[in-house]
Amino acid sequence: MRIFWLIVIFMTVLLPQTTQAATEIEISAPGEQTIPLALVPFLPIDGPESPKAIGGFLDALNADLELSGLFRFVNPDAFLDDAAQLGLFSTQVNFGQWRLLGAETLVKGAYTLEGDSLVVEARLFDVVNRRLLTGRRYVGRTKDVRRMAHAFADQILKALTGELGPFSARLAYISNQTGDKELWLMDVDGHNSVRLTNHRSIVLNPDFSPQGKELLFTSYRANNPNLYRKEIYTGQEAKVSFKKGLNVGGRFSPDGDEIALTLSKDGNPEIYLIDRNGAIRKRLTNSWGIDTDPSWSADGRQVAFVSNRLGNPHIFTVDTYTQEAKRLTTQGKYNATPAWNPKDDIIAFTRQENGRFDIYTIRSDGTDERRLTFGPGNSEHPRWSPDGRFLVYSSDKDGNRAIYVMRADGTGSRRLTTLESDCRHPAWSGRW
Amino acid sequence: MNRLKGLAFLLFLIALAVWLNGCSTTPSTPPVDEQAQVGSTDIGQQPDIAGIGDQEIREEGVPSHEDVAGLQRIHFDFDQFTLSDDARDTLTQNANYLKANSSIQVVIEGHCDERGSDEYNLALGESRALAAKQYLISLGISPQRLSVISYGEEKPLDPRTTEEAWALNRRAEFKAIQ
Amino acid sequence: MSATRLSFNHSNHDHPKLGRFLVASLIAHTVLVILLAGGLFDSARRVKPPVYYVDLVHKPVLNPQAGRPEARAKPAPKAPAAKKAVAPQPKAKPKPTADKLPTAKTKPTPAPKPEAVKSAEQRRLAAIEELRQKQARQSDIDDIKQRLAKLQSAGASVPQDVPIGMPDGSGTEAGVSVVSHVQAFIQSNWALSPYLLDQSRMGTIQAKVFLVYSDSGELIRYRILEPSGDSQFDDSIKRAIIKSKQLDHKLPKTMELTVLFNLKEMAAVRR
Questions:
Q1: Chain C closest-CA separation from residue B25 CA (Å)
Q2: Which chains reach chain B with 3 or more Cβ–Cβ distances below 8 angstroms?
Q3: pLDDT per residue as tens digits for the range C92-107
Q4: Do C21 and C94 fall into the same domain?
Q5: Are residues A113 and A185 in the same domain?
């Protein structure tokens, strides 16, 4: 009898629970919008520590990962004894310790220094799942240590996002450090700058070829703004377009086969397509006004440019097949220097308001216009990183004009060049 | 004793209910913690580190341009390449000078102030120079004697950032080719 | 609700302990009624200040009651010392009030309990971590104390007789909603950078996960019902679940949850 009652009681208690559907919860944002990363100082495999040799690695890696915006760095002061353990296999790492510190990802590494030759082993671990995400060994000389770090930063981004980072690429830019505006090249963090031209004239507006280590630029060396092509390693230089008037704003098509540029050979600046040797393939624009500053869409089908055909300078796009032009920007009175994102249908451009330039983005259908910079000073010449995640640009916000880099949403801005000379017209190379 | 039996039965019922409940929603129950995996290290990438060539480039024989006393520069309004009345008067004087000195070949330089984008200003400078050229042609100067070059904002007369400096820098200059 | 019924049903039996419990429960309920009535009567005459939910100490319950989340101090010690009285507020564990109130749940409120530690090494680490967190908490608490003191001196007095509970509570138990507690816990363990994602998918991306927690707060099993298809997004959710395999509080009962992860809030901010 008692059992019977117990059953009855329990049915009344239990049944509502068993038939009850699972409670639904919605979580509409992550608690943390960065991934907690522990970046551990690398240890010597054997021999004494050599912070002078390896210091640049952590420094450069830290800067690259910081710029990526993906991570929150776990405070190194909190590191426990696993940070001092050399074990680099996922079986040797004390993941529990890193979990305790709140890390979800972990970078550990080791190095061997023999004279001037440096071998660095670097690994990225998933702390939560206790597994290796990527591991790389770099062999080089001590002066290459930052470049090893950039290469590893690229790999970290690949492991986490599926796409390589752009940190081991190069930036080309124009600097007047020698007194003349010449073409220069540097690493993405501003280190290892080197001058590429010695025209002792005016060099302007470089662009990298998508495949090779090759640059387009305009120079007044022959007393006309002509378009040149330069191979970076051989130093070989060729005149590409030297028509009467402007031969400026040369931009390689995404397949590297064609060059869009502004020519004014017929007395009015228009956008043309030429081949790599300068032969005209097609005229893209035909208006009474100024048409200049082309930039290719990622698929190579369209070209964005600046035109004052409707009065003020605005951004337009033109279809390279049909030559049909469309107005893109409608706001503002002075829009210039379009740069089409290599991965997305977003176009960065500059707008002048109250005498100052700032950088904006807009979708290629004319929607979703956003302002990325908010002074002080002028921010101009935006160009995308090859992965479309970052923008490099020039600004005079710190005084002299210098090269800066920021995330595609305008955050994380950072100056790359010193303020001792005037630097402008940056361009980001493809994969190096 | 009876109570104990009842308790046992109860426990059984609970277990059954929980089991059935679990079964109805999750036929398989994957482990919470994923197995620690020992990844194979795909180490071995050699960083691409190459030296950078920096070759000296020799200067070509470049003609030099010289100011000519009799040729006056003209000025423009912001973002404009239309000729003002003042500019037309100056161009008329320049045309007279060129007629009197028929051996002079002239290059017309178009310039802009620093405001505006560099690339657009190159085009604007070109348009200013061309506007001056067209006007000189209309005054009877042979097009063969005239050429144009735009320097955009690259060669300001006055590097300051003032209205006066900008007004001075928006100009077309006339230089003789030697 | 069912948990409450459980206690009454048991008390129908001639079990001496249960009988005693019933008496205790009745007394406690009476106290509650008196307290509630007094609170309501009192509060009717004065305007209640806005209610804020401070997630410092709480006990997850199934049916949280309406009211204020902070512990209600006894009028006597609180009234005189304006500055000092603030101190215990944020720190106060819900225990004293919970004891007074007849929540049918018989288990004592658990203090945040560290996971079972095995080696001395781990215990040491746990201790270090606890100290670290305590220090971090202490600075937060000091800050809150200061601000509260400021508020008090500015004349914004806190009524002492508002019931403890959630601002949006409608149940009978003192504590926070167990569902929102679990939600907050999992959310705090979910780390995902917007830079990892295709921005155009931000508004629509979602994944659905089924979770079962035991009443000890342990994740018994989980299953991803509907993955998002984006490996970064799905991985981040898996990490969040693994990090949430032990809740910091016990639950009133075994719970089955369907959790929908999306980025609607983030997308709204970033537009």
A1: 9
A2: A, C
A3: 344 443 344 443 443 4
A4: yes
A5: no
